[in-house]
Amino acid sequence: MTALLRAAAGLIIWAIVFASLYALQGLACALGWDKWQIAEASLARLVLLAVYTSGIGVLALLCWRYRPRVSRRQFLDRLAFAGAAAGLFSLIYTGLPVVAASICR
Amino acid sequence: MLAGAAAIFGLVCALLLLAFRRRGADQPVSATAWIVGGGLLFPIATLSALLGYGLIVGEQLLPRADSATLRVGAEARRWQWTFTQPGTAGPIRTRDVLHVPAGRPIDVELTTRDVIHAFWVPRLAGKMDAIPGRPNVLRIEAHRPGVYHGLCAEFCGAGHARHGFRVVAHDAAGWARFQAGEAP
Amino acid sequence: MKALRLHRAFEAIWGTPAGWRGSLATVNHSTLGVRLMVTAFVFFLIGGVLAMLIRAQLATPGSAFVGPEIYNQLFTMHGSIMMFLFAIPMFEGFAIYMLPKMLGARDLAFPRMTAYGWWCYLFGGSMLLVSMLLGIAPDAGWFLYTPLSSKPYSPGINSDFWLLGITFVEISAIVTAVDIIVSILKLRAPGMSLDRMPLFAWYMLVTAAMMLIGFPPLILGSILLELERAFGWPFFEAARGGDSLLWQHLFWLFGHPEVYIIFLPAAGAVSTIIPVMARTPILGYGWIVAAILALGFLSFGLWVHHMFTVGIPHLALAFFSAASTLVAVPTGVQIFAWLGTLWAGRPQMHLPMLYLIGFLVTFVLGGLTGVMVAMVPFDWQAHDTAFITAHLHYVLVGGFVFPMLAAAYYWLSHFTGRRYSYTLGKAAFWLIFIGFHLTFFLMHLTGLLGQPRRIDTYPEGVGWTLYNLLSSVGAFVMATGIALFIIDVLLQLFHAPRAPRNPWRAGTLEWAMMQPPPSYNIASLPQVHDREPLETAPDLALSLARGEGYLALPRNGWRETLAVDTKSGRIDHIVVLPGNSLLPLGTALVTGSFFLLVLLKLYPWTLLPLAGLVVLGWRWAWVLGDKHAHGELPIGRGDHAPIHAEVRDSPGWWGSVFLSIADGSLFAALIFGHAYLWTVAPNWPPPALVTASLPVVIAGLLGAALAARRSSGVTVTGAGLGLLLTALLLTAFRLAPSPTSHAYGAVVAVLLAYAALHAALALVICCFARARRRAGYIAAINGAEPRIARLWTDYAVAAGAIALACTHLPALLS
Ligand code: HEM
Ligand SMILES: [Cu+2]
Ligand SMILES: [Cu+2]
Questions:
Q1: Where do the TM regions start and end (chain C) (predicted)?
Q2: How far is B123 from chain A (nearest CA, A)?
Q3: DSSP element (H, E) containing C348
Q4: Which chains reach chain B with 3 or more Cβ–Cβ distances below 8 angstroms?
Q5: What is the pLDDT of residue B45?
Q6: Cβ contacts (< 8 Å) between C147 and chain B: which residues?
Q7: What is the largest CA-CA distance in chain A?
Q8: The whole model's pTM is what?
Q9: A40 is in which domain, residue-wise?
Q10: ipTM of the complex
Q11: How many structural domains compose chain C?
């Protein structure tokens, strides 16, 4: 069963970070964080960017841990790496709008 | 978008057809070439481009503060629309006809008295829902004077099909007359 | 002859006695799978008739065929029947029938649950049919948006039928999902490691997991809406702090994954049939597994694309727009794997292949329009128009009906043991294919011309008239095709000559048995060495029938099959499955009477079926197991294994784990609802919070801590649970504001009720475990039962602690 969990790990992390980004967006607008300017960006965007980049970091780490190696040629090992890579790419792709899109409008 | 979709569809059909024609040709087929090329790289490239474009257009369509915009109100109920336009002597309320000046961005503030409705004038803008307790704002613009048909796009019960309205876009003189309270 | 002797002996153990009693009591997966499919097909025909009525109404402008009241019932019932009563039960029935055979097992892990699921589906579906016959069918659209479906705007009983009937059917979906998931993970032939599993099993594994996560939000939403309608708890009413958007979130949190839940099993059938038609192994097995895994997750990140026009900030729209385009990637991987397989092999133009081509063409078009509506600005135009109706039918009919028709022709001889005739099925295909595209391609155009969906009439002279007429003609062409399909299948059932075994020369295990299959599937279980066992051993069927595999000796009248280690496929233990029983029917009847009483608003009486369910549930678990240990038993081929009652990770344990995951999904959706209302609903904060009370919190947490301790005996655990329960009830009845005053009070009440219910349930389970131990059942001493009791206790403790924190903390902090 743990083999299956490992295969899903990257995607589970994607789901958690994606849900957090969406939740934080709602919370930030409810609390008015989009109006607090810090340097060029609003507090809301900084928080979102922080979550986004740390999510990417975690997933990149996971990809590294599950990287294909000679000792790990089995189907489920490769599946775990594929899951982690899919999670990483999905997060980069689905989270990219935090860089520029209007947060509360 | 339409042409792109047609092209992709044509490609898939061609591959399918060729698969049957090719019967018997015995070169091995590479999983990576098919799946990484066709299933991963190709969609990712097209989709990223499309998504970027879609988001930029989306940003541009947002109702941003702008001194030229005019604010009107649209209140939906089963099965009627009540519009509020600014007049020279205070707001002017109309039923099922919205009056706007042509050539100016208009912000329509959408509210509802009962269930969810949606304000949609296909030729002026996309649609937006009117939701209880959550006023929404939709930016529309009529480039030319004229009459535009609008309808309720969100299913709202027995009268849904007949929950339409009209938008009358006036030229400058017509708009001034309307604002002064003279029936158009 | 040895094979015949074995057949008689196994038939005596596994068979269903003749007569009505046997039919009511059967738990056999083949029988139930076919029943589910036949019932679903009947619902498909009913839904199809409704579709014809819809098209008749829309054929001409200003039609007076039916009025808006009836029309609204027509499309609501068409959508609801097709989604809930046709598509889901159809693939469930197919999986129930096929999975054990493909996996080399004799039945599913929980045969009585399979039967219970079918009965629940039948009763729940009948409820909806009755409402239709009485002319009071649901009429607020298949997604039943509030406040249109709330009491003030739908005062009749129509929406209640939907909420209760569909919830009843969802219960069946949840238990079936648990059944399927545990069967795939545990009940396989020895040697079938995960990477040797047929792709269809991978598809069903992901589908069932998605059902466990995706359906509970809808069940929760339905409960909340029914509470609002019945008692005025304002979850969705803006004036009292509710939000109609909460319903939309809960619905689509289910509704979008639902589309993939419907598509994946059909894609599983495609991935099974295509390589056989192309006479080559599937291209990129690993890629496909990774793709469906990714699809399973990504499809939960799209639900807001159904809400692009509700006025959500652009960033949120952008997230979901991105995710919606991203799912096209794993779908693309599968499509190219299929194309590559065809390319690699020598595809043969048999009838199933013809339907698969129909599938590919139609589904690709549906996917392309799907990408279009994932673009926010385009959706602002297309949303709620006939364009969407066209898109969704391209995806659903293309992605589900066509593959299922292919599957029907591919596996028909497995059900009937007869050969098929080609010509009629081909004519049916062309009628369906042409009729379908005529109907729905034109709807893209009318949609772009501004025709909204769900309108019962439209004016002349706006340019929609001709398209609509042709569209209706197409629908009737398609209906003719379906009728031809039915005739063809009936002809085959009764007239066709007997088919040879494994007519397609396929490699998967479902062909390693008699056709039609006997009640026990296989007289002995094979040892599997690769993905296509029949490829390497074409005579496997005979050798299995002669008893040359595992478990070839009938023993004690037990229904035995093997459980394996999930990953490696090593033999783990013997599962002794329960036999025929009237319990599933009885339990379903009692469950049904609960829903009926709620429907009739006889609320005090609902306590009766609830008590009945506790009694029946107790009995359900009590009748299993032995009071003496058997130790390691021989299983043939020189191997030995214990029986499931004597191991710690029996199917029952895994069933509990997965059921608790579904339960957790419901709880998570509830917490989400609470947080959602708190942060974004209009008319907050509420007039009054819960009156925080430190003593109550401390008492509750103390109880939780006592119950959570591993070392304490049943008495202490029970006392702890009792204390927790008291704290929850005290909060609910003494400290919380009235549930009718504000959505806050309502959501708090549900939170506390949920936790209290689980504390009470855990108490019952602990009592059960103790009674079983006292009675001397092995499973309660050496087996999984203490572990299961622990699981539900821990769950109740966690839920109780969270509920206490959510209700008291805000007040304590402010
Ligand atoms: C047999 C051929 C079918 C025809 C001719 C057909 C026709 C239609 C039409 C005309 C509508 C639009 C009603 C309106 O907007 O007023 C509709 C709605 C719908 N159909 Fe079908 N349909 C068919 C099969 C299916 C199947 C197989 C499914 C699902 C598996 C399905 C699911 C739906 C859903 C979910 C709706 C939306 C209902 C709503 O708006 O509440 N249909 N159908
Ligand atoms: Cu309306
Ligand atoms: Cu969707």
A1: 32-54, 74-97, 118-141, 161-187, 199-225, 259-278, 285-304, 316-341, 353-378, 390-412, 424-446, 466-491, 574-596, 602-621, 653-676, 688-707, 714-736, 742-771
A2: 23
A3: none
A4: A, C
A5: 85
A6: 114-116, 132
A7: 52
A8: 0.96
A9: 2-100
A10: 0.95
A11: 2
